[in-house]
Amino acid sequence: MNEALMISNVLLWVAVLAALVGLFALARQIGVLYERVAPMGALMMDTGPKVGEASPVFDLPDLIGSSRVSIGRPGEKSTLLFFLSPTCPVCKKLLPILRSVNNTEKDWLRVVLTSDGEQPEHLAFYEKADLKEFPYVLSSEPGIAYRVAKLPYAVLLNEHGRVVAKGLVNSREQLESLFTAKELGVASVQEFIDHQHA
């Protein structure tokens, strides 16, 4: 009887040690996987004005016609040009994030919304989403100049009117990666990560 109890205890300890070794190996593999899967910044399409180049300059009326919105001219603040559509669900998901960015970064950043299409549709969207805090431009000119093919897309211009970061943004992380790229002085977070690995 004692011998059977002793054998079962030994087998249990062997099983516990095997489980610990397996857990350690799994934790190590997760760490390796985490290093390989780097954080994704905004997906930069290599079209339109390149990072470092001067932005095209626009002076366009806002959606409701109450003022004009200047884009690409040197100014006191950087400009985040956010391309969106009333029918884009991801764009709508990012609106609370844009509000947060607009409030927390207002000392150095101006957020401008831009789109093209029919004015009645955009006015309804503007009212329903309560976008009065943002300058909203309805014109195809910026989209053509920046060669925007997919939405939501964002372009960050510095206070000198130069493109400092741009890309397709589907999440808060990708939007914030534009600000990180500006701080690091690189075209994109991906470029920075690639240089670190090289």
Automatic annotation (TrEMBL):
Domain Thioredoxin: 49-184
Main location: membrane
Keywords: Membrane, Transmembrane, Transmembrane helix
Transmembrane parts of this sequence: none
Pathway: One-carbon metabolism; methylamine degradation
Subcellular localization(s) per the UniProt record: Membrane
Gene symbol of the encoding locus: mauD
GO CC annotations on file: membrane
Top-level taxon in the UniProt lineage: Bacteria
Key word Acetylation present: no
Entry keyword annotation includes S-adenosyl-L-methionine: no
GO biological process, one term: methylamine metabolic process
Name this polypeptide is given: Methylamine utilization protein MauD
Described function: May be specifically involved in the processing, transport, and/or maturation of the MADH beta-subunit.
Membrane topology: Single-pass membrane protein
Organism: Zoogloea oleivorans
